[in-house]
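Summarise this fold before class:
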Amino acid sequence: MAEEPIPEPGSGPISSASNGGRSIEECQSMIQRSLRTPIVKFLREHLEKSGCVLGDKFIKAVHCNKQISGGYVRGEGIMVCSNHMNIQDEVNQVVIHELIHAYDDCRAGNLDWANCAHHACSEIRAGHLSGDCHYKRELLRGYMKLRGHEQDCVRRRVMKSVIANPYCSEAAAKDAMEAVWDICYNDTQPFDRAP
């Protein structure tokens, strides 16, 4: 999602993997299965309609030393951290989340990942539109709130990601998220509405 020197901002959700995850080969097979899901097909199609052609190696399994599930890097594509993946649903979620970042990067043309507001906006959209904060996922994470869980989850996850950006302090991340919240949360492109 960014040019150097930002190492891995915009990384996907933190993995709950506890058994060392999957091998790169197993994860690559899981990515191939993910590419056949309707939402991934939809996002890839809209990326291409926006003028961004995704090559065969745009989404790849890698071994990650950091506690992240994946990430998007402009010019390189999407990485899925095989050693933090256990099940197909985790891979699907990372791919969807990161494809939304790729879509934002493609359609904006001037997205600056070092800009806290730009980064926060894409994280808000990815958290909201990818299903990362579906109430069942939140229950599995130990969050039991029934009303307002989705927005609370998106805010929590945006903060975690934007704070990891070396250009954004905690205060800057919070200010940026609040400044862009309404417009970015309500921007559901390329969907007609939030899935």
